[in-house]
């Protein structure tokens, strides 16, 4: 429970630091509007969203174009469906020089 709280706080701080984050979803997953800054904080934002339901986040797709989205799933167990839906890694943000997670 403490881990979920810490992840939630970190996600909130990162989400507020990035510009204009739009997150929409429910207990099974969601989407984050793509921007260079959002991709840097995508895992933390998804973790914070899924932590409300005591679940783990997995980034499933990243469309690197303004107007598109970063999609994620919320899973009960991080090892569930590990072969069916592979996780997608985020990358270095060339616009700002930030090092992205994973």
Could you outline the blueprint of secondary structure elements for this entry?
Layout: H1 2-17, E1 23-26, E2 29-33, H2 36-51, E3 56-62, E4 69-75
Helix pairs in contact: 1-2
> Percent of residues in helical segments?
25-40%
Structural class determined from secondary elements: alpha+beta
Cα distance spanning the termini = 24 Å
Main beta-sheet strand count, sense and barrel state: 4 strands, antiparallel
The poorly predicted ranges are: none
Average pLDDT number: 76
Number of domains: 1
Number of strands: 4
Number of helices: 2
Q: What's the order of the H and E elements?
A: HEEHEE
Rough outline: globular
Strand content: 15-25%
Q: Please state how the strands of the largest beta sheet are arranged side by side.
A: 1-2-4-3
Radius of gyration: 13 Å
Oligomer: single chain
Give structural notes.
The protein has helices spanning 2-17, 36-51, and strands at 23-26, 29-33, 56-62, 69-75. The longest helix has 16 residues, at 2-17. The relative contact order is 0.21. It starts with a helix and ends in a 27-residue tail after the last strand. The chain has 102 residues and is α+β, with helices and mostly antiparallel strands. A hairpin with a 2-residue loop joins strand 1 and strand 2. It has one domain. The model has no long low-confidence stretch (mean pLDDT 76).
